[in-house]
Amino acid sequence: MLQGNGPVGERARGLRQAMSPPEIALWQILRHRPGGFKFRRQHPSGPYIADFYCHEARLIIEVDSEAHSLGDRPARDKARDRWFAHRGLTTLRIAAADIQKNIEGVTGYILATAVSRHLGEE
Predict the structure, then answer these.
(1) 52 vs 13, residue with greater confidence
(2) 64 bridge partner residues
(3) Hey, what CATH topology would domain 7-121 get?
């Protein structure tokens, strides 16, 4: 399992208390272990904090607001995704608006990806 240390772990604890409405809505589903997969929220991983992490499927889920398309954010997100990929993790980037419009579809996509990743590693 990936772990953050020191300040990253402390920052993750604070972020759990300050989740956005789309993150909260998604967490209300993921916390009940859909498909038998355990998800962690605001999980520290090295220098980063993943919005959601499923160790069993080696899957990171990032909820992206419109701010992720501004300034240097796209480049920072790509660097972050590469960091996770070098550790064998897949990152799903999900638009916050998609969660608000179609949470069932988003959940189905996450579960299908988790199942595919889990079966591919066995």
Answers:
(1) 52
(2) 95
(3) Endonuclease; Chain A (3.40.960)
Residue 65, φ and ψ in degrees, nearest 5: -85, 180
CA 118, CA 85: separation in Å to the nearest integer? 16
The 10 Å Cβ neighbour count of residue 5 is 10
Q: How many CA atoms lie within 13 A of 27 on its CB side?
A: 18
Amino acid identity at 67? A
Q: What are the tens digits of pLDDT across the range 61-115?
A: 999 976 656 567 889 899 999 999 999 999 999 999 999 999 999 999 999 999 9
Q: Where are the domains of the chain?
A: 7-121
How many helices and strands (H and E) does the chain possess? Answer: 5, 4
Q: Please count the other Cβ atoms lying within 10 Å of the Cβ belonging to residue 117.
A: 18
Q: Would strands 90-95 and 59-64 be described as parallel, antiparallel, or unpaired? A: parallel
Average pLDDT over residues 21-28: 95
Spell out the alpha helix ranges (H) of 18-102: 21-30, 73-85, 96-101
